[in-house]
Amino acid sequence: MAAAPAVARSGAGRGRRSAATVAAWGGWGGRPRPGNILLQLRQGQLTGRGLVRAVQFTETFLTERDKQSKWSGIPQLLLKLHATSHLHSDFVECQNILKEISPLLSMEAMAFVTEERKLTQETTYPNTYIFDLFGGVDLLVEILMRPTISIRGQKLKISDEMSKDCLSILYNTCVCTEGVTKRLAEKNDFVIFLFTLMTSKKTFLQTATLIEDILGVKKEMIRLDEVPNLSSLVSNFDQQQLANFCRILAVTISEMDTGNDDKHTLLAKNAQQKKSLSLGPSAAEINQAALLSIPGFVERLCKLATRKVSESTGTASFLQELEEWYTWLDNALVLDALMRVANEESEHNQASIVFPPPGASEENGLPHTSARTQLPQSMKIMHEIMYKLEVLYVLCVLLMGRQRNQVHRMIAEFKLIPGLNNLFDKLIWRKHSASSLVLHGHNQNCDCSPDITLKIQFLRLLQSFSDHHENKYLLLNNQELNELSAISLKANIPEVEAVLNTDRSLVCDGKRGLLTRLLQVMKKEPAESSFRFWQARAVESFLRGTTSYADQMFLLKRGLLEHILYCIVDSECKSRDVLQSYFDLLGELMKFNVDAFKRFNKYINTDAKFQVFLKQINSSLVDSNMLVRCVTLSLDRFENQVDMKVAEVLSECRLLAYIAQVPTQMSFLFRLINIIHVQTLTQENVSCLNTSLVILMLARRKERLPLYLRLLQRMEHSKKYPGFLLNNFHNLLRFWQQHYLHKDKDSTCLENSSCISFSYWKETVSILLNPDRQSPSALVSYIEEPYMDIDRDFTEE
């Protein structure tokens, strides 16, 4: 940015004027041209040259121009602010000027929030617009950063009150004027400096809110290891500050999303992973490691997440924060809702809270309250919910990061799971009251509701915690763990080693464990509930990995299979997301389990019900293919067992009989290959490719692979597209080799979930890709020469 000329003193403007000022006036004796100044200021703001600040004008000129344009005296105030904020100033007068500017901007910001953030033009909020245009934002940044400047070895200091005013004005300008937040985000040294302002409780909330907004638009993720004394800063936060700090952490530890679905293809992800390997850890990974190195960090998060409402901060502390919310506009809608709740309960409980107007306070900084003031319980609960939302999110992200095992160990040690279990009924899945908090412009079923968001975040945490990890058994209590052991004993099978190794001092206490509680609310969930998807995902994660008969029976005994079938068949669920989660869960629940197939046949006891079930399966194979895979694998195992119970199920079960038919398998196989292509493969639909491979691997075991390939060729010809399907399948298998042969985690998951060794997966793919046209098991043998197109480069352009 171009250096600003020396400040024009009052009364000194008539004798000497800068060229910029002359140009703005249109000559020495002319009048200002309408709109010309603002246009030049905007141009200067964009280019960094020409007119950029109020100090480039005389006070006389600004005063005269203000009479016509009604700038509320803001440019003149900025002129004075610049003159009183020099390095040797005591900042007393500077603070007084800030007090004059602040209400001019806060009124507009309040109007912006209460008008539901409608799309507006900049000129709708002229004060904040003019403040920014005349260089107010850059000037405040310089004032805030004065403590980073040393004079003769001593650093300058400004008061917390003055910092608070600067932060408030900056935030209000960000709220109302487009582009300000992005410009601040580009000042990396300023963003890092803001973290240091959080050491003071007086400026913490303002700083945290501004940082959160800035990081939300910052193109490159900030690195926490660049924040001075990060460990000391975080360690000195009280629990309330730490919970609010989690809002910032949510932005700094999550991998940045491109926002483009095309970039979420496996091709793009693989390319990104190769690039990441050469670049080293991402900023998000570095930030996660920085946080985990802070002593006691995860332990404090676990305490916050499991803290009961009665253990939260006292009324006075909460009222002080509510006063901050009252003046801090980002939370105005939340406070508005909280106040409505308070008023409703006040009528019944004779409890009242008196909130002063902004700025009014006692000498100790607390709002005026009567001696008998009591905080309504619902406000305490909502206060705790909003904290826990942020904390659970951070824990969830850490659980999915590179240090997953370390985080798992700490979460278990600090008893997060039993703590959440104790909060389940009274806080997490509490019954909605008539006065449940709903944000302005939303309803109780909206995903924006804190109640709703807490439930979803809780379910996501359970999913991450249980997924392919032996600590999942901490979701049970001692009695339920004993039940698992009894199931294994009765079935005459070895107990699961992870159950035997579970530390009983870390499991849930009480009559029911967390998994059982989840099943209970899941079965009561209304048909249209958005929770069904997340509930099914959380329970399914408990079953993922190597199939456990005891785990399946534990859930079957609690009526889970019947509930799923009711939702799929009797309620005729329409939501694709919910259907997919229910099909995936049903597949894990039934896989290799004879008792589950007996229960299925008992529930689906008519042809009409079975046809509805098949209709749901066939309506979208991307959603149902995991169930098709599990049933196919189960059929193969059952057919190789000599057991009366198994033979009975094979002869009676409609589903097994349906899958056993070769035409059925071929229909599934053709459609599974046809609905995916290398360029459109994602983490969601790659399962279709693996399910098609399972069908062909099992055919290979029975020496029927050539038959299946020949049938695919005939189906191609019947559809008038010779070579189209098999060429596509050839490309998909080439990609499969690139994708899975270099990723240990995915290959392990394939092996564990199918009970087919990964070497057999690799061999089958190699056989299918054999270039020898004389091989009866090679794809090329079934693609006629004129239609051959197997060497296409499928890397993204």
UniProtKB/TrEMBL annotation:
One Pfam family recorded for the sequence: DUF3689
Q: Name one GO cellular component term.
A: Cul4A-RING E3 ubiquitin ligase complex
Q: Which SUPFAM superfamilies match?
A: ARM repeat
InterPro entries in alphabetical order: ARM-type_fold, TRPC4AP
GO terms in the biological process aspect are: hair follicle maturation; protein ubiquitination; ubiquitin-dependent protein catabolic process via the C-end degron rule pathway
Q: Which GO terms describe its molecular function?
A: phosphatase binding; ubiquitin-like ligase-substrate adaptor activity
This one is known as Transient receptor potential cation channel subfamily C member 4 associated protein
